């Protein structure tokens, strides 16, 4: 190296050293300033805080200049390393209040990729996690920290691959725990900051155990920040669990109201059957608005969305609920965010944290479960410094209880009256839609049941009174021809119910009417033979119109099958939470006359139907699978012991275990036999293929004798064939064959692979075959043909 170049090199080295020293000094100063940050001062802007230049730039470029109240209070505390439990109104900027300390904490520790995961942010829903991630990307754009999103609904493998490279993770609790359990090398032992956003919701959603398990995996020495727009006792419990002497920062407690000042809030009182008419009329009179409409369940959302779309109210309609796929949810989220005027029908999935820009109205058609949920729902409007309106529909039975709950939570809300002259009735249109489209009718039935169920499940019985609902009128306003039968059957306590022998689906006996807890049995009224006496009387008193009958006949076959399937499925998939409420299939038992065609049927039509081939085949008893013992005696696959003998054979659990083990052994043996058969078949196939290939090659050789230029083509063919065979074999083969086949494939197609050990010999052998000299004489060609044939 010349002297000049060396000098230049030294100069740049020095410059780098100086820069490093300066950066270290800056970090030292920053750390000192943070530790000594006076907490009694009122900071107005982000500039006044000891934040890194990179964060300052990120904030400025995102137009965050002045701090909100919660940011003023919480950020200085968090910068000093304190644990914070923060409560502030919706839309008050809590996201920045925890993200800035997260970034700064890692920055001050000179965090790099080598240090691994440094911060975890946990949010209750995927949408919220995505939103937090976007804010982090905005304000952290100048930093070189890596951040990742770990939410359900995405490929775990892809996440597993990248998760270890991240410094900050934004995640939902379930998926995070999954990675903690399943992802090799996923280390959380270096976590510096843990954030729980909407902590109370995380608990509401039943993630308490998950959170506890996550916290167990984290180091004790860390900073914890928790934020929510509402704080419940359970959050404080959680705080005790994971925060060390936390600072409780509550902007709500200081203020007169727990909702934003710029939010005007009203409620109206109506009856259940009026709700959809009022909503439709509201849309008609607010076409140029961006409105979020809350309903109690996915089914309600779907029904209202589907029917209103068909009624063309004149405003763009969207819907969002938890049963949609993640990509669809995101698409709708983005669409609604970007639209100026639109109606989004949603479940409580959209209640928390989501920052849709410029929402004018939040309309709660179905009342929220409690005052906290009300606060979060209305918080989707009037965010930051914007204004907004909220309208709550209350049933007469709900008014008193809900108003008291809202007053207690410091929610200022006024009553307004609905002008009946301005309400458009859509009942007829809904009826017609249900009549024309069985899917709509089906949705209506599901919406009906899920609404009643949601009211029944509400824990605050002072607000939600299921027995005061005008059920029949409600069904009629949904356009349904009859009331899907909802029977309240008092059953015994949950445990007692479980011990009872299982009932035949669709069969409801009078013993279900005894006990303490309540069970809902739903049936399709159209196909309901076992109506109770009252119902029969009612039907006699109100004979069905011709239209009703037509309606029923038209939709009967389409709906009942579809409906039955779904109801059956649901009955099979009942979760523990749903055990109280059971969906049951309608009892489709045929009358005795129809069952026994020999007896006198009531009418000719019935007789013909009962003796038809189709009917007999359909109703013939199903064949049973029998197995024969060595003496040729038939047995059922599983034969039942008599109960006494069964009980005397030992306790149920151990018998069950023994039975499962025995069956497992049988399955294992069967499995081996199946595998042998499959392998034999594969080998047979391969031999056949080889013979065929050999024959084809012999044919080709004949042409080689006459045309020596075909050799390259032949070579290609051979390679191709080998590749194809290898691929086919690979698909068909077991894992054990994988290596052999992939070597074979490489041998046929790849160039040099000197680093392959086992495969090397094979490659060389193949290469000999492929790199043969072009034959010049007839003898050469014959020799080549022989060699090639031998290779097979
Ligand atoms: N300092 C600030 N300056 C300007 N805008 C801000 C500031 N802080 C937050 N915002 C904006 O205010 C809106 C609400 O912020 P954010 O979503 O953090 O509220 P939140 O308190 O978390 O609400 P929620 O309780 O509903 O989750 C966002 O659009 C955000 O960009």
Question: For this structure, what is the CATH class of the domain at 263-478?
Answer: Alpha Beta
Head-to-tail CA distance between termini: 61 Å
**Rg, Å, rounded:** 36 Å
Strand content: 5-15%
Helix content: 40-55%
The averaged pLDDT comes out at 74
Motif (Q motif): 44-72
Keywords: ATP-binding, Coiled coil, Helicase, Hydrolase, Nucleotide-binding, Ribosome biogenesis, RNA-binding, rRNA processing
Protein name: ATP-dependent RNA helicase
Domain Helicase ATP-binding: 75-249
Task: Put the structure in a nutshell.
By secondary structure, the protein is of the alpha/beta class. It is 52% helix and 11% strand.
Offer a few descriptive terms:
single chain, 792 residues, alpha/beta, Rossmann fold, 7-stranded parallel beta sheet, 31 helices, 19 strands, globular, binds adenosine-5'-triphosphate
Verbal overview:
There is one protein chain. With 792 residues, the protein is an alpha/beta fold. Among the domains are: 36-250, P-loop containing nucleotide triphosphate hydrolases (Rossmann fold, 3-Layer(aba) Sandwich); 263-478, Rossmann fold (3-Layer(aba) Sandwich), CATH 3.40.50. A 7-stranded parallel beta sheet has the order 3-4-2-5-6-1-7, sandwiched between helices. A 7-stranded parallel beta sheet has the order 10-11-9-12-13-8-14. β3 (147-150), α6 and β4 (168-171) form a beta-alpha-beta unit. α28 runs antiparallel to α29 and α29 runs parallel beside α30 (758-770). The longest helix has 55 residues, at 652-706. It is globular and about 95 Å long. The two termini are 61 Å apart. Mean pLDDT is 74; it is low at 489-538, 550-601 and 702-772. Bound molecules: adenosine-5'-triphosphate. Residues 64, 66-68, 71, 88, 90-96, 229, 353, 355, 379, 383-384 line the site of adenosine-5'-triphosphate.
């Amino acid at each position: 190296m010349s002297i000049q170049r060396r000098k230049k090199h030294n100069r740049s080295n020095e410059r780098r050293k100086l820069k490093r020293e300066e950066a270290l000094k800056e970090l030292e100063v920053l750390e000192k300033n943070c530790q000594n940050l006076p907490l009694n001062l009122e900071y107005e802007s982000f500039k006044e805080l000891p934040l890194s230049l990179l964060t300052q730039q990120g904030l400025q470029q995102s137009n965050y200049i002045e701090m909100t109240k919660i940011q003023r209070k919480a950020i200085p505390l968090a910068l000093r390393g304190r644990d914070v439990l923060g409560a502030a109104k919706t839309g008050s900027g809590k996201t920045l209040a925890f993200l800035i300390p997260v970034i700064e904490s890692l920055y001050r520790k000179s965090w790099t990729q080598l240090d691994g995961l440094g911060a975890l942010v946990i949010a209750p829903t995927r949408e919220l996690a995505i939103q937090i991630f976007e804010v982090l990307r905005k304000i952290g754009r100048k930093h070189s920290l890596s951040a990742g999103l770990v939410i359900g609904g995405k490929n775990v493998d892809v996440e597993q691959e990248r998760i270890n490279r991240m410094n900050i993770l934004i995640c939902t609790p379930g998926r995070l725990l999954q990675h903690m359990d399943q992802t090799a090398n996923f280390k959380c032992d270096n976590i510096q900051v843990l954030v729980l956003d909407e902590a109370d919701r995380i608990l509401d959603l039943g993630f308490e155990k998950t959170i506890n398990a996550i916290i167990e995996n984290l180091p004790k020495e860390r900073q914890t920040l928790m934020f929510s727009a509402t704080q419940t006792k359970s959050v404080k419990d959680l705080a005790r669990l994971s925060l060390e002497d936390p600072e409780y920062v509550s902007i709500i407690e200081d203020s007169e109201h727990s909702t934003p000042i710029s939010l005007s809030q009203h409620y109206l009182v109506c009856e259940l059957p009026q709700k959809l008419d009022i909503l439709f009329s509201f849309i008609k009179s607010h076409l140029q608005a961006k409105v979020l409409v809350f309903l109690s369940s996915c089914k309600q959302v779907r029904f209202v969305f589907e029917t209103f779309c068909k009624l063309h109210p004149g405003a763009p309609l969207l819907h969002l609920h938890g049963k949609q796929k993640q990509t669809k949810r995101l698409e709708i989220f983005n669409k609604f965010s970007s639209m100026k005027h639109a109606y989004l029908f949603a479940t409580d999935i959209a209640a928390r944290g989501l920052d849709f820009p410029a929402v004018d109205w939040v309309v709660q058609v179905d009342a929220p479960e409690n005052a906290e949920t009300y606060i979060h729902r209305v918080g989707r409007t009037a965010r930051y410094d914007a204004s907004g309106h909220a309208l709550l529909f209350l049933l007469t039975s709900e008014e008193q209880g809900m108003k008291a709950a809202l007053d207690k939570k410091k929610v200022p809300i006024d009553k307004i009256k609905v002008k009946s002259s301005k309400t458009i009735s859509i009942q007829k249109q809904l009826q017609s839609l249900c009549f024309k489209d069985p899917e709509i009718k089906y949705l209506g039935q599901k919406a009906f049941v899920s609404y009643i169920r949601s009211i029944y499940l509400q824990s605050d019985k002072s607000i939600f009174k299921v027995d005061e609902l005008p059920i029949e009128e409600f069904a009629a306003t949904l356009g349904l021809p009859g009331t899907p039968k909802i029977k309240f059957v008092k059953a015994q306590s949950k445990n007692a119910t479980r011990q009872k022998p299982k009932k035949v689906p669709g069969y409801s006996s009078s013993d279900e009417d005894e006990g303490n807890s309540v069970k809902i049995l739903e049936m399709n009224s159209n196909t309901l033979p076992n109506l109770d006496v009252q119902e029969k009387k009612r039907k006699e008193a109100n004979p069905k119109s011709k239209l009703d009958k037509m309606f029923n006949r038209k939709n009967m076959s389409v709906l009942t099958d579809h409906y039955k399937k779904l109801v059956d499925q649901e009955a099979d998939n009942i979760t523990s939470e749903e055990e109280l409420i059971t969906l049951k299939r309608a009892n489709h038992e045929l009358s005795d006359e129809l069952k026994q065609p020999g007896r006198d049927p009531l009418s000719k039509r019935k007789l013909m139907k009962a003796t038809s081939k189709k009917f007999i085949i359909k109703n013939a008893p199903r064949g049973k699978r029998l197995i024969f013992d060595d003496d040729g005696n038939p047995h059922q696959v599983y034969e039942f012991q008599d109960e006494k003998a069964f009980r005397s054979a030992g306790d149920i659990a151990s018998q069950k275990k023994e039975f499962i083990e025995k069956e497992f052994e049988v399955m294992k043996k069967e499995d081996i036999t199946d595998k042998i058969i499959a392998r034999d078949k594969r080998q047979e196939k391969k031999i056949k293929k080889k013979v065929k290939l050999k024959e084809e090659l012999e044919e080709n050789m004949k042409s080689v004798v006459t045309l020596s230029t075909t050799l390259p083509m032949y070579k290609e063919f051979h390679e191709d064939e080998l590749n194809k065979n290898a691929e086919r074999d690979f698909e068909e083969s077991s894992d054990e064959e994988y290596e052999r086949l992939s070597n074979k494939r490489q041998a046929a197609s790849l160039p040099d692979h000197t680093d392959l050990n086992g495969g090397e010999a094979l490659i060389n052998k193949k290469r000999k075959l492929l790199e043969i000299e072009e034959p010049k004489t007839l003898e050469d060609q014959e020799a080549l043909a022989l060699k090639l044939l031998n290779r097979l």
